[in-house]
Amino acid sequence: MHSAPEANPEEAALVRKARWGDHEAFAQLYRNHAKAIHALAYRLTGNAAAAEDITQDTFLKMLGFLSGLRDDAPLRPWLKRVAANAAIDRLRREQRLVAEADHDAWPDDSADPTENMEIMGMLQRLPPLARTVVWLHEMEGWSHPELGKRFGRSQSWSKSIVSRALAKLRDDLETGVGDD
Amino acid sequence: MIEPTQVREQLHALPEIPLPDALWRRVDAKRRQKLQRRKLGAGIATLALAAVMAAPLLLPMFAGADRAPGEQIAAHPPMRGEHDVQAELRALDHALQAAYDRGASDAEIAPMWVARDALLTGIPSGNSAIRRSRI
Which CATH class is domain A1-94? Predict the structure, then answer.
């Protein structure tokens, strides 16, 4: 993981106030973190509606007294972890994981190449599982053991997924796919 | 040949995802709903707790209504029987379960555990089955 950020006492106070119903405290926390959490959820799911649902649920979970968020813990990593877990749960619920494991649907050639014009660019051409795993590893600093455990697989499985995803992305970059 | 670092750079260089303006209104509306449910739940739990705690005090009054005029009131309130305690425990357990189900706060739940423990303390030591019961 990346180096652990320091807990922010002012932010901890905002969380306490928000939990007790303070509207302005909640609004401030949303302003500080919603963009990052929504972007992460969107990168992991590739779906605008799912990203909004995950962002909403993450912020509401923060208000829960039994949410597991400690006062001395920095908020952003906690929010990101909750959002990432929600995205993974969603992915697993949709049984894409099972389908891909069973049918080895790799690479995702069914994707429309014109989609590479969209905001997700080359990531969009990766299968959902690969996109989630490679983003968490490369951009969010999740380790292979963490990823393997969270997906109910081994760390070798995670290494394989990341390696193949990066190879696919490199290949796309070299061949110019996505640069249309 | 593209290097892995270049792939990472590309990932970092992906355009920002715009945060939909409407999302804040939606999240805030849900937050208000959640707060209202919490307040309602706290009110119900408090009422349930008050009813459970007041029951031993009120029962003799209702019992007295059936008493014939002139009948002497007992010098001591009747002792709570095992059945009464069990009924109160069941009521408390239901209130606790309902509170956990709706994700009630620690502040709301803690008094119910205190009341439950107080009930258990008053049970004769022979009733270990009741003492052990936890939800």
Answer: mainly alpha
**Is residue B69 included in any domain, yes or no?**
no
Q: Report ipTM (2 d.p.).
A: 0.75
B63 reaches A (C-beta below 8 A): no
CA A105/CA A114 separation, integer angstroms:
20
How many CA atoms lie within 13 Å of B65's alpha carbon, on the beta-carbon side? 4
Residue A8 has pLDDT above 60, yes or no: yes
Please tell me whether residue B56 adopts helix, strand or coil conformation: helix
| Residues A90-109 pLDDT 10s | 988 875 555 554 444 454 44
* Cα-based angle B32, B34, B37 (whole degrees, multiple of 5): 110
Query: Is the pTM above the cut of 0.90?
Result: no
Asked if A77 and A5 touch (Cβ cutoff 8 Å), the reply is: yes
Expressed as residue numbers, the domain containing B126 is 48-63+80-135
Q: Indicate the number of domains in chain B.
A: 1
User: What residues of chain A lie within 8 A of the CB of B34, using their CB?
Assistant: 60, 63
d(CA A108, CA B112): 55
The reported pLDDT for the residue numbered B41 is 79
Query: B24 in contact with A at a CB cutoff of 8 Å?
Result: yes
pLDDT of residue A154: 94
- DSSP secondary structure letter of residue A121: G
Q: B69 pLDDT exceeds 80?
A: no
- Report yes or no on B106 lying in a domain: yes
DSSP symbols for chain B: ---HHHHHHHHHTSPPPPPPHHHHHHHHHHHHHHHHHHHHHHHHHHHHHHHHHHHHHHHHHHHHHTSPTTPPPPSSPPPPPHHHHHHHHHHHHHHHHHHHHTT--HHHHHHHHHHHHHHHHTS-TT-HHHHH---
For chains A and B, CB pairs below 8 A equal 82
